[in-house]
Amino acid sequence: MKCKLGLILTLAILLLFCFVPLTGQPQDSLLNEISPPGNYITGSEANVGENQTFTEDQKLVATYYFYWYMDSKHRQNVSRYPSSLKEIESDDLERHLKQLKDMSKVGIDIVLPVYWGNTSCRKNWSTKGLRKFVQAYRNLECKGYDLPKIGMFHDIASMEAEKYLQGLEGKPDLTTKKGKEFFYLSIRDFYSLVPSRMRARINGKAIVWIYQSSFVKDYNQETFKFVNNKFQEQFGGKSPYIVRENSWSVETENVYDWGAALKGPTFSDIYSVGPGFNVTIPPIKTDAVTKREGGRFYKDSWKKILALSSKTDNRIVAIETWNEYHEETEVAETAEYGRKYLKITEEYIDKYKSGYVPENYPGKDLINADSVVIEFGQEKMKENGIGYVECADGKNKVVRKAEDFCLTPKKFDDKHKYMYFKISPLFKKIRGTSQYELKIEYYDSVKSKLQVQYDSQDFPGPYNGAYKPKDTINPLGTLNWREITMTLDNVNFKGRQNCGADFRIYAINAELCIKSIALEPK
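^ that's the sequence the OP posted. Answer follows.
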C-alpha cells in the first residue's frame, strides 16, 4: 500500500511540475529553454536516501545497461538477442524487470543506464525508456529485491548527434557557455527522472560516468567546475561523483578505460573487464574482433583483475557490458549463450569481493618482472610484456637484415611512419612509477633516424601529453647493430595513443629497422 501511495503522489507532483516553469535562470539559458523531464530535482525529495551511499573503501561492481532497442534504428543489424526477438523489441516492463532481477542475483552494485538526453527524437526512447526502467525498479523495490543503485552513463556520442542545439557545425565546444550547459543538460535531465533513494552514490555523491571525449571539440577543467556547481544548486548541495574515461585530460573523482571487451582488461583507477567484441552495425563495422573462446577470454580477464586487485587499492570493477548486443559485449542472458555468462559473472564477482587470488593466469610472470621486452631478432616477433600494435599510420613488417631480423616500415615513400607499442598492464600497474629506462637496438644505417614519443603526464600539452617527444636520435652510419638508452620522465602510460598504444617510434627515415626494445622502471 505504501508503494502505491508513493507512486500516486509522485505522479501528482510530476503533473504539477510539468506546468511550472523553472525560475532563477537567465532567459537565454539553454537550461531554461529546455525543461527537465522529471521532478526529482529540488525540494525535500532531493536528499531522500542520501545516507544510502557507497564508500571508496568498498569493493563495487558496475555495469553498462542499454535500453535503446525500443528505437527501430537501434534494433537494426543486431546479431545477438535475448531469449527472444520479442523481448528486445518490447517496450513493456518485463524486459527491465528481468534484467534487474539478474543483476541483483549476480551481485551488481551499480547499474549505468545509457542516456542520450531529452531533446529531439531522443525523448522517444532515451527518456521514455529510463522512465520504464525506474518504474520496473520501483516494482521490484516494493517486493524486497536487493537491487543495484542507478548511476548515469553519459554517452557523449549523443552530444554530437544533438549539435544543432549549439547552433554550430561539427562537434560541440564545451568551453563555451552554451557548450557547458549542453553538457550539463543531460546530467540534469537524467537525475530528474531517478528518485533520490535509487541513485548510486559514492561518499554521498551521485555517480556520473562519462564516455570518451572524442565526440567533443574542446573542453577544460572549467567545464567540469560548471557541472559541479550547477549540480550542487539543483540536487541538494552536493557535487556529482564524476568518473571520466581516460581520454579526458582533466581532474575528476575517478577514471576508467573504455575497450576492455575488445583489448582485454584495463587498469586505470577503475578496472574494466569484458567477454569479447564484434561490431555488427554498418557503417561502423570494423575488422576488430575479440573471440570469446568459450568464455576463456572473460575468465582470464577476471583472473588478471583478481591478481592485481590483491596488490593495489582498486575498489571498482566495471563490466563492459551488460547488454550491448550491437557490439556483442553482453553478459546478460541470450538465445545463443543462455545464462552461461551470468554464471561466470556471478562466480567472479563473488571471488573479487572475497579477495580471492588465482594461482595461475596469463601474464603472471610479468607482475614480478624487472623489465619487459619485445624482440624481432627472429622471423616471428617475441613479445614479453611489450606488444606491437599495427595502426593505420603504423604498418610495419619483419625483414631480414645483417644476418638477423628486425621491424621496418612497410612503405618507403611515406614521410611519416610509426611503430606503435603497448605495455602489459600487469607490469606497469604494479610499478607505479613515472620514470622508465627505454633501450632500443636498431640497425645503424646512414638514414636510420628515429624519435620516441610516449604517453606522458604533461597536461596540458600537444594532444594533452599523449605524444611527448624525446630528442631525435641521429645515425652514426656504422652499418652495425646499435643500442641506445633513454630515460622517459613523467610517464603516464595509459594507452592514449592511437590503437591504445603507450609509446611509438617515429621512423623519420623509412630505412629504420628495430631489432629489440626493452623497458624497465628507474
